[in-house]
Amino acid sequence: MTLTACMMLAAVLTGPAPLHFERQAIDHVTYEAASICDVNNDGIKDIVSGEYWFPGPEFKAKHKITTIMPSDDYYDDFSDYPMDVNGDGFVDIVSGGWFGQTLRWFENPKGQTGEWTVHDVAKTGNIERNTFCDIDNDGVAEVFPVTSPVYIFKLKCDAGGKGTGAFDQFIVNPKGGGGGHGFGCGDINSDGHTDLIFSGGWLESPANPYDVENWAWHKEFDLGSASVPILVFDVNKDGLNDIIVGAAHDYGLWWYEQKKDGDARTWIKHDIDLGRSQYHDIQLHDIDNDGDMELITGKRYRAHAFHDPGSKDPLGVYYFEINKGDFQRVTIDYGPAGQASGVGIYFWVDDIDQNGWKDVLAPGKEGLYLFRNFGPLTSGSK
Amino acid sequence: MKSRGAVNRRKFMLTVVGGVAAAALPVRKARAARVGANDKVRLAVIGNGGMGSRHIEALAVNDNCTLVALCDVAMSRYVKACGKVKELNGKEPEGVQDFRHVLDRKDIDAIFVVTPDHWHPLLTILGCQAGKDVYVEKPVCPTVAEGRAMVQAARRYGRIVQAGTQQRSMPVFQKAIDVVRSGRLGQITMAGAWVGVNGWGVGETPAPVPKGLDWDLWLGPAPWAPFSMDRYGGFMGWWDYARGGQLTNWGVHLMDVVHWGIGQDRPLNVQALGGSFRAAPGSDNYECIEAILEYKNCLVTWEQRHQNRHAGKDYGITFHGTEGALYVDRGAFVVEPAGAGIPEYIGEPEKSWANPPHHNNFFESVRTRKKPIADIEQGFRSTTAVLLAGLALKTGRKLYWDGDAERFINDEDANRYLTRSYRAPWHL
Amino acid sequence: MFLQPTWKMNTVNIGLCISAIVCSLCAFASAVPLDTLIQGISSADPKTQCEARQLLPRENPIEAVPKLLPLVGSDNPSVWWTALAVLSDLANKVTQPGYNEAQGIVTTQLMTLLDPAQSNDVKIRVLRILPIVIPEGYDVGPVAALLTDADPGLREKAREALEVTGTLHAAEALCNALAAAPPDFQAAILFALARMEKTLCLETVLTYTRSKDATVRAAAAHALAWTGNPEYLPTLESVWKSSDETTAFDACDAYLRLADAMVVSGGKWELAMSLYRQVLKKDLSLVHRSGAIAGLGRYGDESVLDDIMNALKGADARELEPAVLAAFDSLQGAEAGKQLLALYPNLPDSMKLGMLGIFGRKQDPLFLDTLNSAAKSDDSAFRKAALAALGDSQLPGAVQGIVAIGHSGSAEDKAAVTETLKRMASVLRARDDKQGAGKAFLELYRFADTDELRQEAMDGIKQFPIPEAFDVIMQTMNEEERANLPPAILLGLAKTLNDAGRAEDGKKLLETALTRIDSAEALQEAFKYLGPDALGMAPRLGVITAWHMVGPFPWDMNKAFSVINVNEPNVDLNASYTSDGKTLTWKKVSTGDPGGLIDLAGNLAQADHVCGYAFAKISVPEACDIQVRTGSDDGIKVWVNRQVVTEQNVDRPTKMDSEQNPAKLNAGENSILVECTQNAGGWNFCLRLTKADGAVLSYTPVE
Fold this sequence. Notes:
The complex is a heterotrimer. Chain B is an alpha/beta fold.
């Protein structure tokens, strides 16, 4: 029997070689949000998820931030956004969840261990997931906790641009609009202002976003129970921004192509992936350093216990190469809970080990996992 | 009989302390054809000793299969077995000493592994690697790591592997478990199994290797030792070949039924006491054992004693629920109190050793590729429970078990017992 | 690469440690002196040997081990076996958490048996024990030295011992021994390193993938595969390319193991799938291509189906079918299921039969139509496969298909159907699926051809009564059979019929049921099936649950019922009484217990040596002879219409129907008076009325 084997992977696969990730189980904590940031200003990035932060580069130790209310197998923590709220040079964490209905931030004790002080900002109503977007282009993100009513929480900064520990609260108050499951921000009409996108339409921003009476509601589509965020991105590079949206509690991932005929705007629905469900969080990052954005996403395990369609399907973490309207799925992880990871309600992408490749931090009820990115597999390396 | 591929033997000098065995033949080139819905499964039985001959006698008269080859390291055994088959069905199988000649054959679909315990894992894995399906006797493995390797091999190569826990196919047990799981006994809070004692020989007398026996092959992956009848004829008493004696010999059967009844397959922790008190210090594997395994919401006991009799049974399994108790062995099951309204059920112990329904379940799986009723994963878990009891005896302490990671918790030294080294050139 | 040993022992340390540890291990000292026990091992008397064997492990290991060591070299197998057994126990003792120092000391003591002056027999014997006691960080030099011993048998024993030891030092020692070892021994060492899974060895192992010896190269590849590191792929490729007939299998097997490890370690899913696909596409052994297919199925998603189906286009498609079926069985996810369903019609019959089983095991309603339709096939093999699949699906919707097979008429089919229904019913019952189980038991009943099976089915219907079963009972049973049904079944069915809106039928059944309850057991069974409705039905069932009550009055057993407290039997509910300085009046009480158990301690007072009274009025349409059935804690006296019918001056716990006594009721109103006595502890009673024949008596309560 002759033996010839040709193992050059790059030649066999169509498209770029898949990235080589290594999965590390950080801890069997089951919060659904996480983030990567330098908590203690030692130059090394750390992991934050729910009640704990894990110092890098090993992530073997864990320090308590605060106690967060559990409810069944959920926690009242649907975001762990790093932001220096009080301007003391140490990053704080902005959080809030469905059950507590409260936007809050955890004050970093200047990198020391010991619990963090909890500051309630406002009682906003059930928070599906805090969304962060720099709507006024001042370099500091604003917070959008809920879809109805539409609040904007803007960090009050001093003259030097440092946070002061307080937020101004605005209600976007047009005649109707907002609401539903799903939220995103982006410039739909390419006028340089950041608009807000909802399941049932979009709110067009006035020149000054804080001119709250003058947001205009455009009921132009129905995205169903949509992902948070809904992404605004020119998929087919035709100069018009399109929408990418997932089904948060059902099967489906789509992009809606914006078409304009004079002043009339229409949206054409295209399928990306109908065979997987619970695409609750979707994000755009250049994960393979090719200069283009990829769509990174995955399954939110037990988003509604086992009631959602497809809730017993395998979990997964994916990225989609986008090529002028064509989406090619690449699987980072796939398998049942206990063997593979999903992405929870708010995952995080950043180069945590600073090797030049962006990594994926995937929280969720299946556990907290870090996928370190080593770039494409180079042949002949060993 | 000609084997495929070159036979590549290299011999080493055998000294008093033993030598390295011959290198492995090139194997696993066989191509097992697909067994069709109406085809007879073509079998080889490896291990034609006491238990092996029972299987052979039952298989010889089973229309679902054909005995193509019988294999044993002792020529006298396979010769005798072949003769018996000819007596029973007129078709004498081929007799073979080295199992590798069996695995090489294209005309064998499946193998029965009925050798001493220390060969079970490797024969199963080599069988899977040769494209065969496997029926492997209990205990399926002497150590936990080997058992997991067997399951991995079955899955990796897509083979059917049935564990020889035939009580799963016996109506008396099926009906008893129906009662247990119906809730009529209430919640099961304790279960137990018990058996009497096999007297193991003590000590050994080295002797010349009998004619026709390939002693080196009999040893296989076990550590080298000179031949003695004590080892060869009484392997169950020796840690090198069987890790528990009666505990693993009968324990797997009985613990398997306990698992089946309580619906769990991994203990939380285990502790045990044991000893051999009759005469002289005794062998590796103890005669008298009391073990307690803790499962979720349930305690399980194992009692191995002389003159061991409960509820009129010399061995058996018992389930104690909040509303009643059930005692079962291969002959019958009995529910107490009598007022519970469930009559005694009488079974068929005669065919309980080499059990045709269990064989047929295996053949059915070979044809349909559906997992058999005692799939290797399940047999491995039942074997693990008694192996853990044996390790609690060996280490002399309570051991906490992580059933998912398959390791002890906070006891790295005890974890060394979960595996054993294979004598070269054999390897997992 | 040289690990620094963290364990450095010298005799001074040992001395200090002994004195420090002796105290903590003092508890192990036994009544028989250590030296006596040691001598006992060599005794000619088996009993003495036995005692020594059992008691020696209780000793302080640091003291006992050195005294045992000389026995290991004995010519008498009974002596050295026993010594080894004791040493094993002592070694295990010091590996307990918290005995770190002792563990090191004992290891050092045992290591002395590896001195060059010792015989090979002794070395081999101590090598049985060392592996489980050598601590992490301990210098394994004495064992490692044996890896280059002149005797190959001893070299092998040392290798085995280091593999089981499993410490970093042991792994390093094995690595260091590679260079000088002959090829066979190199292979053996590499297989040991494969099992030990230490990253510190990988660089060394890698160099042996370029050995001149093919067996060594294959072993080295095997020893890299566990890492799941895709960087090793080119190395494994070259090992494979350069393998010969003897080593081809192991070389290729390393790929499958690497792919498996890649998936399990996570993050390399695409790479692993690609690796399986590569193995599949190449002209390799059937076993490996089967393994690749199995891997694609085990870990893959719907995207693997094309590759698998392509593999089935080759000449050996039939031989790959087992692996393909295994792969399809493992595939998870709704999308994969949909695509498998779409593939089904075009598969060869030989695969279709297996696919039916797979569809059943997916337990997804998606496949039900296909299974139900296969259940109606003319081909008995298909019917059989569909039957097994429907049973495995555990879907209530599968019952229909199972029944269809039964109707096909063959006796073998019917028997198989019965078994399947039984199993399904059992599973659905275990899952508490009331509708599913009820339906399954109903169908089982229809198919049953033995009394035993019918009874089993009826038990199931009883547990999960569904309206459909009512018709079965009415249709398939005649008057007499129905009359013999346990009343509890009838009550359960009556309740179900009511719930389903069939009030008329429910009422009829209820009436029938009531006539059939003729014992305390039957009544209590009925309560189970009536559930929360049972209490409300008390008057229908003859149970008194509402009373006027007064007390407590002083009482003692000697006086029995002789003391008159409430002018019994002519009570006046408006009267008040004085007792113990307190004024007592009649008050209304009732019980939540459907059996009528009414608590006087709670309603009146928790006291000893007292009695209380309860009074009720009931109405019946016609005069009749009845039984008064009572239970009490402690004693009870009952008057019906002011006639004494029951008198029990006892101390006992309450049990329904402890006694039954005849009485007469008038048409219209009747009175019942109860005196209940209390010695100590519980104080309660229950009372129910039946007709003269024991069937329950319905009454109307009177305020």
